[in-house]
Amino acid sequence: MNKTELIDKIAAGSGLTKADAKKALDATVEAIKNALVAGDTVALVGFGTFSTTERAAREGINPRTKEKIQIAAKKLVKFKAGAGLADAVE
Fold it and tell me: Is residue 85 pLDDT above 90, yes or no?
């Protein structure tokens, strides 16, 4: 399912117009993104939890040249499915 199809489902399920459903989806995604950038965790009961974690810098190996390289530290976004979502998918 792509974004357009998701907007159609939201509009059909909520009685909103497609334009309003798009605004609602965009606002939701933006709010989650801003919370993660600020270092907060976003928990949606029954759906799941979005959080960030840091991966430490480490040494790796270039598989082509077998040369050792430094891999920089970075932040990652994690999602843990809630019980309601996990049960629905099974």
Answer: yes
pTM of the full predicted structure? 0.79
Instruction: Report the half-sphere exposure of 25 (CA within 13 A, side-chain side).
Output: 18
Give Cα 90 to chain centroid, integer Å.
21
Sequence-distant contacts of 52-60: CB under 8 A, at least 24 apart: 52/76, 52/77, 52/78, 53/78
**What is the edge-to-edge ordering of all strands in the sheet holding 74-81?**
42-44, 48-55, 74-81
Burial (CB count within 10 angstroms: exposed 0-12, middle 13-18, buried 19+), residue 25 = middle
Q: Which amino acid, 48?
A: G
* Burial of residue 2, with CB atoms counted within 10 A of its CB: 0-12 exposed, 13-18 middle, 19 or more buried: exposed
Summarised one tens digit per residue, pLDDT across range 11-36 is 999 999 999 999 999 999 999 999 99
